[in-house]
Design goal:
By secondary structure, this protein is α/β, with parallel strands linked by helices. 38% of the residues lie in helices and 14% in strands. The strands form 3 sheets. An 8-stranded parallel beta sheet has the order 6-7-8-9-10-11-12-13. A 3-stranded antiparallel beta sheet has the order 1-4-5, with no helix packed on it.
Length: 379
């Protein structure tokens, strides 16, 4: 590996002690009559639950997107998204993350269709589905949470999910907001106690909210799996500034990293340097995030990611970005819109960056201005 020939200072070790097992082969054949699928052996047990998932999952935010954020033709992308779903499960990536707000429910509906379309394929591992409750206006009560989960399960065509989360903290109603957040934690407890999910989690919670949720769930005997947060090589604020990851470690909660490729910044696809990125320009709302100035600031980092990947036998910058999050002890959920991208996600299993590589990457990333992060983190 590239780190063997470099003498940079090693970083402090990964800040999260995730319970994980790895294997060079990354997958192993399933046992049982008629089963020919392969299960990832590179796995993580989420938080205080017994939920074992592939060490990288996949996010279905872009599947069925009707907001225009990820594209303008979700119906035209359906076939490619189905190919991505099939490639993920064929490669052992079983942890599939969605939410009721993705595509205004369409992401969940597509998952139902994809499960139906692939039901006869014994080469695909069973998916472990995670979805999220949106604390939108007119939801105030604990019962709103299991009610929302039942609606999500109806859209997905399942009777139970692996993981159910609160998508973000309630906000904006002085004197009422915290009562709503307390009610929503109670509602998550009800989801578990009623057998609707195997474990519960939260998303975009700050350090103190993680501790409060952990106390509540421990008192009720409810397994607390994860806090889903924005985290990447280009956005380490939860690790370096806000104490969110420290709180997760303290409470035994696994950080699940969304946007591990910084919404394309770390893939090399979008670059101010045409020699690196082919001159591809971001369009739509992401064009504001992937500005020329931002892309130029990341070119040296992407160049280093290409170098490390080349020394590892052709690993792409996107795979370096995802594996960085895995190496740091989070479970990333990169998006995969087609089979090629899904196969790249599968290729992140079974290996980790070494300490010298992590040190070089973090030093190079320090030159990239940090993104603002999600506003939820401050609520």
């Amino acid at each position: 590996p590239v780190g063997a020939s470099r003498s940079r200072a090693a970083p402090r070790r990964a800040v999260v002690a995730a319970r994980a097992s790895t294997d060079a082969a990354a997958t192993t054949p399933a046992q049982g009559v008629g089963n020919t699928f392969r299960t990832a052996t590179d796995r993580v047990t989420l938080g205080t639950s017994d939920l074992s998932v592939a060490a990288t999952g996949a996010g279905a935010w872009a599947w069925g997107d009707r907001s225009g954020y990820w594209g303008s033709d979700w119906e035209g992308d359906r076939a490619k998204n189905l190919d991505a779903y099939r490639a993920l499960l064929a490669g052992g990536v079983d942890f599939i993350d969605t939410a009721e707000v993705y595509g205004f429910g369409k992401s969940e509906e597509l998952i139902r269709e994809f499960m139906r379309d692939t039901a006869a394929d014994a080469t695909l591992c069973p998916p472990l589905l995670a979805t999220k409750f949106a604390p939108i206006p007119f939801r105030f009560r604990a019962e709103d949470v299991p009610n929302a989960l039942r609606a999500s399960m109806a859209r997905m065509g399942v009777r139970k999910v692996a993981l159910y989360m609160q998508h973000w903290p309630a906000f904006g109603l002085p004197g009422v907001t915290e009562a709503c957040n307390d009610a929503f934690l109670e509602g998550l407890c009800l989801c578990y106690e009623r057998g609707l999910c195997r474990a519960v989690g939260v998303s975009n919670f700050n350090a103190e909210r993680v501790r409060q949720a952990a106390k509540k769930f421990k008192e009720r005997g409810v397994p607390f799996a994860s806090n889903q947060i924005q985290y990447s090589l280009a956005y380490r604020t939860p690790e370096t500034d806000t104490g969110v990851i420290d709180a997760c470690v303290e409470c035994g909660v696994t950080p699940v990293a969304y946007s591990p490729m910084a919404q394309g910044l770390l893939t090399g696809k979008y670059s101010a340097n045409s020699a690196l990125g082919g001159g591809v320009k971001a369009t739509g709302p992401r064009a504001r995030i992937l500005s020329e100035e931002k892309l130029a600031s990341a070119d040296a980092l992407v160049d280093l990611m290409r170098e490390i990947g080349a020394n590892r036998g052709g690993v792409t910058p996107a795979q370096i970005a995802v594996n960085y999050c895995m190496t740091k002890g989070t479970v990333p959920i990169p998006g995969a819109k087609d089979a090629r991208q899904a196969e790249a996600v599968v290729g992140c299993l079974g290996w980790r960056l070494d300490e010298a590589e992590v040190a070089e990457l973090e030093a190079a990333a320090a030159a990239v201005p940090s993104t603002p992060g999600a506003p939820f983190e401050r609520w």
